[in-house]
Amino acid sequence: MGKILIIEDEAKISRFLELELTYEGYEVMTAADGRTGLNLALSNEIDLIILDLMLPVMSGIEVCRRIRQVDQNMAIIMLTAKDDVSDKVMGLDMGANDYMTKPFAIEELLARIRVALKREKTEEVRDNGNIYTFGDLVLDDMKRQVSYKKEIISLTKKEYELLKYLISNKNIALEREKILERVWGYDYYGDTNVIDVYVRYLRSKIDQKYNIEMIRTVRGVGYIIYD
Ligand code: CA
């Protein structure tokens, strides 16, 4: 079903979650401070983390930030005692997938865990999809190679990643913020203009060179590649 790491310093809540999640069939690990939790997260095959915000030694925000530096796909649900909007925003900014305020109903948390695990799984499948096409253009992710009618197109790392993100999400209008988050990473603090610049690079290397219309602008939103 999946392995869940609980990082929570309140023993009662941690024990309660451990019992409930074990009962539901998950494999469970626990940590009572941020640093121990981070170490467990980085040294085990964890599918989802339930992360308390206020933790001793290292805060939940910091744990989240450090996990995101090395793992963009890990499902993270943050817990906090305070119903504080700024905490929520900061947690989501640092890359938490979801957020719950204590006290919470266990059924609601279980539902959110199921959603987060499902999302993680579909993203993994998408990542391993290997080959994406647009007409005669082929992106082979095993070889990290893009070609048009077998002619190899030389792209920089970021150009490649941007194209891969767009082409692997065909027919979905991708917002600039989302593109920035997924291609440049959660710890990138520049603005979204960088995306327009890279789209221009891609268009000059592909669309204009081969006279095709691949990357389309969605006004006020971002970009899309249609099938
Ligand atoms: Ca706490």
Defining traits:
Arc Repressor Mutant, subunit A, 4-stranded antiparallel sheet, alpha/beta, Rossmann fold, 12 strands, single chain, 227 residues, elongated, binds calcium ion, 5-stranded parallel sheet, 8 helices, 45% helix, 2 domains
Notes on the protein architecture:
The chain has about 230 residues and is an alpha/beta fold. It folds into two domains: about 5-125, Response regulator (Rossmann fold), CATH 3.40.50; about 130-225, Winged helix-like DNA-binding domain superfamily/Winged helix DNA-binding domain (Arc Repressor Mutant, subunit A), CATH 1.10.10. About 45% of the residues lie in helices and about 20% in strands. The chain contains eight helices and twelve strands. It has a five-stranded parallel beta sheet with strand order 2-1-3-4-5, with helices on both faces. Bound molecules: calcium ion (CA). The site of calcium ion has 5 residues, from loops.
Secondary structure: number of strands:
12
Q: Report strand %.
A: 15-25%
Number of helices: 8
Task: Return the structural class.
Answer: alpha/beta
Span between N and C termini?
34 Å
CATH H-tier superfamily of the largest domain: Response regulator
The bound ligands are: calcium ion
Q: Rg from C-alpha positions?
A: 20 Å
Contiguous low-pLDDT stretches (5 residues minimum) are none
Topology as H/E string? EHEHEHEHEHEEEEHEHHEE
Question: What number of structural domains do the residues give?
Answer: 2
Shape annotation: elongated
